[in-house]
Design goal:
homotrimer; 9 helices; transmembrane helix (chains A, B, C); Membrane protein (chains A, B, C); membrane (chains A, B, C); mainly alpha; transmembrane (chains A, B, C)
Chain lengths: 214, 214, 214
């Protein structure tokens, strides 16, 4: 399998994972069929579309490559037809989401590098690829974006994207290095869930002065 | 009237229709003059700007062609000065919105095709052109985006964009074919309102587990 | 100092000002370290990234020029370590925000002109550069965007961007003209706060018909 196909496979597996998570969130909000498919597609492809626009990949792959839409539709069908078992199995869904996070951080960073951009752009857009769809889902469903909660989420994406960029600059480009970078991100994310890790937050006076500042 | 002018006229009529709907929504929220103009412009041009960025039409027409801003300002003036009669006539406003939906779906899909992109990109961006502005309005005004409600809205845009792409691929390009594609979308949207159509939604356990999944 | 460096300095000072305001808003919401840095970066660079995408400046400077991320991190550190004094001094923070508004409106409009775009695009994107980050912050933190409140905010950005475009077209391009355009915007903004200015808003029947229209 050549390098281009490898990253496309990574990207499609991540698309499926995120589309399932988006379809389940939409189903829980009692959205109709179009709403479920829309949210699934938005979560799965939204971050990638923003990344493609920023690196000059026009038209964005999520819109022009039929495989992305097909995978989103498949995931929506699974989330609808197998909803009861999917809902009951909380840990597999969080696992899917973590796998998607890692795959997208790595594939997104690599695509950015392949378009000739530097390390900083690649790491930032790897993070955007991984968390962007989830932020769009949370904004549209009026939830505080999960990346801003007290959880190790985008930090894990930062680790995965950073590892991929580091391996690339060090010329570690065997077939297994992207899977290793993905594993770093997924391991950090799952360990943070298991051990209850979180980043420092800051206590202080009650938040009754939210609107004092602009 | 040549083909380019025809699609520009379609686009400007749709811009006016959506700008009126946005200005009325902002007026109902008691926003000030700048807020009304901003929301009207956002609803009218937002989807088109996202489409133009995705197809490589830089700078986006909504920003560079003065007619779009002029039409948005005109619609804001109408919504402010004629607010009382506009509010009373619910059905004409829904009619305006449906007409805008159809015109934008068709003109947006056609512009995408004219930039050399394929059928899938054209249909998806026709939908984005048609519903994007309304989604931005709902997100900014903290409402659940109308496209996710149990109504036939984006599905009608899908029909209009799909018809336009089909006619184009079948080389049906007389002056009346875009109006026919627009009519398909508008008819579906208005019929769904009249007959109370909706897509399947899915009942199930109460949504007290919204935050169980990520 | 040559012209390019001048506008980069303007842009970085504005970035610092906005990043402080974003970090303080995130701190008030009790977000964790990553959340504070994310919101600070989003407020500081979000508008500029949208502008860069619309004018064809790929990749966006906020992602590719390390100075922007560095300034955002510095501002986050200041907001965290010096939080108590920063919170108490309400007027300096509003002053920082007004300075950022003016600097971004002017630098954003000028960058758009330098990419060969016309006056309308430059003024609109100068406004987007100045207010876009704040709108993203408010949407993500589920607040009604400040630009839609009854305050002179985006109108001041319009004045600053308009002045810069006017000076450019009139060939007033000494080293001090962008600072003058910035001063116009900052003066309008601060005077509106001091004197309680606002744009006309429109009274009317109670807003119990918000969802009557689509």
């Amino acid at each position: 399998m050549n390098s281009h196909s490898l990253y496309l496979v990574l990207d499609l597996i991540g698309t499926f994972a995120f589309a399932i998570s988006g379809a389940v969130a939409a189903r829980q909000r009692r959205l109709d069929l179009f709403g479920i498919v829309s949210v699934a597609f938005m979560v799965a492809c939204g971050g990638g579309i923003v990344r493609d626009v920023c690196i000059g990949a026009i038209p964005p792959a999520g819109l022009s490559n039929w495989r992305y839409l097909a995978v989103s539709l498949l995931a929506s069908a699974v989330a609808i037809l197998a909803y009861a078992p999917v809902r009951r199995l909380r840990q597999p869904v969080l696992l899917f989401d973590a796998i998607g996070l890692g795959l997208f951080a790595v594939a997104g960073a690599q695509k950015t590098l392949s378009f000739g951009h530097g390390a900083e752009v690649a790491i930032l857009l790897g993070i955007v690829s991984a968390v962007g769809g989830g932020v769009m889902r949370d904004v549209v469903l009026s939830r505080l974006p999960a990346i801003l909660d007290r959880e190790i989420y985008a930090s894990a994406a930062l680790a995965g994207a950073g590892a991929q960029v580091l391996f690339s600059y060090a010329h570690w480009t065997q077939w297994w290095t992207p899977w290793f970078a993905t594993f770093i991100c997924v391991a950090i994310r799952l360990a943070s869930l298991y051990f209850g890790w979180g980043l420092p937050a800051f206590r202080g006076p009650p938040a009754n002065v939210v609107h004092e500042e602009k």
